[in-house]
Amino acid sequence: MLRVLHPPTYPAERRYILDVILRNFLGLEYRAEVQARHDLCITRQQHPPSKKLLLPDVLFQTPEDKWLTLASLPAQPLYLWNVAEEAIDAPLVSPELPVIYGGKLASGSFCEASRKETRLGIDIFGSAFFALTRYEEVVKSDRDTRERFPAKSSLAYQEDFLSRPIVNEYTEVLWWALKRFWPDLRRKPRIFRMHLSHDVDRPVCATSLPRTLKGIAQDVTERRSLPLAKRRAASFVANKRGKLDTDLCNTFEFIMDLSENQGLRSTFNFMTDRSAAIIDGNYSMAHPWIRQLLRRIHERGHEIGLHPSYNTLQNPSQIQREFDLLRRVAEAESICQEKWGGRQHYLRWEAPVTWQAYEDAELNYDATLGFADHIGFRCGTCYEYPAFNLRTRTPLKLWEHPLVIMESSALDKHYMNLPFELAQEELGKLKEYCKLFDGDFTLLWHNDRLVEHRERKLYRYLVQL
Hints:
Shape: elongated
Number of helices: 14
CATH topology of the largest domain: TIM Barrel
Strand content: 15-25%
Distance between the termini: 39 Å
CATH class of the largest domain: Alpha Beta
Strand order of the largest sheet: 2-1-3-4-8-7
Low-confidence stretches: none
CATH architecture of the largest domain: Alpha-Beta Barrel
Helix content: 25-40%
Radius of gyration: 24 Å
CATH superfamily of the largest domain: Glycoside hydrolase/deacetylase
Structural class: alpha/beta
């Protein structure tokens, strides 16, 4: 068992992040002890205390009156540690590692290693806490037109590490340092996992003539696909005759077939209410075809989740109502799941309000946390982890399943607007980074986007890569 000696400040925050990194990520048992010191020391229980790992304690030395203020944010530009200059055997996306909190040691390096002591210049636990809890999103007031914290306001974007799971990299450096003194330590085994998810905004496309005509115009002028335009027109006619199974947006069988061929499960997040009318879904959970779709998804072994409507951002009671409705519908259709998760519509999420709302509604996990305007690692990790409420200073039972890629973030012209060839390269790269750390690759692709050949091809590539 490890022994972690730390200063007395911020006890709840320290317990949380020590648990996440040491116990949840690495699977190590530890005992934390408070000491009158200004750094953090890790030694080994029942071993001579002569060997120790020392880490700076930066974030948790913040004066209480500066906590959750601009004064507590990392100083920019960040230090870059060229890990290649050290004899450190740890998987990294790049040898130049940004240091969120910390600084160079007296020697001018970020690592000093002797026979009995290893000293690092990175506040690994404080930096991880900053990223995982979305600390900066509580501090900064930046919001886009949909009241979302934008990627461009994040430290990860500004310091060019949004495309790398930096908390995983910090964890690997920590593991190297621990193994250097105690090679008999064993970490929790992990395997790479792919989480395919689909927010069901429009289970059917052809619900109104104006929307159908708009779609046909976009097929011709933007997508440059006359065959797709013809299919959309035919779909509208069939829809009006009650033949919903032939609707253009009914790509559910394609999704489930592909997932099953790869030994995977897909999660389909359904919207149970329309708090913002046309901005929300175009269907009702009472419709027989929707009920049939839910049963088919469940019978084939896939998962059903909640897609809270647009105006749930600051409305916990609305989230509760919508989840209660989903559970009532599931019960009526004999659908039983061990866990229930959700993802916010338009990724409208607020720290820590949304996490607390999900917790209070008794959801098991949230899968919202990717940026709408940029793909990458918003939380700095490709591991799922328990959430923490920065306002109440308490850990939650709710877990976060970080979102790595939403297709519209990469492809849409008002976001990254990546050409398909470049998108394939960039999205594939993020999947490879998740593999590097035996992490979770969470991909969101809306069912109504898979009507276009190019998107189907790209989606299939990512699933089979």
